[in-house]
């Protein structure tokens, strides 16, 4: 059997080599782990900033949506007022046309001669003397009854 010392002599160099390889591997891998940790921290910070930006954009979009709703309501009200104005304009136009037709009819009537019977009803003698003035023959001085006594309680 081999003595413990001889086994140690054979294994010890391999342990030393293994320890050196492990130290080299640690020396090579350790900065990369730090680099990955830094990248992860940076990514987390960027994610937090992105989430804040997304929330801000969501608020802005909500504001735009509310503003679009208000604009749509204003547009609806403006269209409704336009319809009301158009209806009023049509009614005023019809009233104006009727006024023009009536004006023409009245103008035509006024251009014609006064009917004789109507003229004689209001005829007065050509005089400036009040004593000579007399009412027209067709108009009776007592055509309107005189007023009677006031009723009790009436004015």
Number of helices: 2
Low-confidence stretches: none
Q: Which structural category do the helix and sheet elements fall into? A: mainly alpha
Mean pLDDT: 81
Query: What is the makeup of the main sheet?
Result: none
- The protein's oligomeric status is single chain
**Secondary-structure element sequence?**
HH
What is the number of strand segments? 0
- Taking the alpha carbons of the first and last residues, their distance comes to 154 Å
Rg calculated over all Cα atoms: 58 Å
Strand content: under 5%
* Fraction of residues in helix: over 70%
Instruction: Give the overall shape, derived from the CA principal axes.
Output: rod-shaped
Tell me what the structure shows.
The radius of gyration is 58 Å and the shape is rod-shaped. The protein starts with a helix and ends in a 34-residue tail after the last helix. 74% of the residues lie in helices and 0% in strands. The model has no long low-confidence stretch (mean pLDDT 81). The chain has helices at 4-111, 116-121. The chain has 2 helices and no strands. With 155 residues, it is mainly α. The longest helix has 108 residues, at 4-111.
């Amino acid at each position: 059997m081999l003595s413990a010392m001889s086994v140690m002599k054979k294994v010890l160099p391999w342990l030393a080599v293994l320890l050196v390889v492990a130290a080299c591997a640690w020396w090579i891998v350790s900065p990369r782990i730090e680099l990955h940790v830094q990248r992860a921290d940076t990514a987390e910070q960027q994610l937090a900033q992105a989430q804040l930006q997304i929330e801000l954009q969501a608020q802005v979009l909500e504001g735009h949506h509310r503003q679009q709703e208000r604009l749509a309501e204003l547009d609806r009200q403006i269209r409704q007022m336009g319809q009301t104005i158009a209806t009023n304009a049509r009614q005023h136009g019809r009233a104006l046309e009727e006024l023009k037709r009536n004006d023409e009819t009245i103008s035509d009537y006024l251009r014609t001669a006064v009917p004789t019977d109507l003229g004689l009803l209001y005829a007065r003698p050509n005089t400036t003397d009040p004593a000579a003035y007399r009412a027209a023959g067709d108009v009776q001085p007592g055509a309107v009854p005189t007023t009677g006594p006031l009723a009790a309680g009436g004015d």
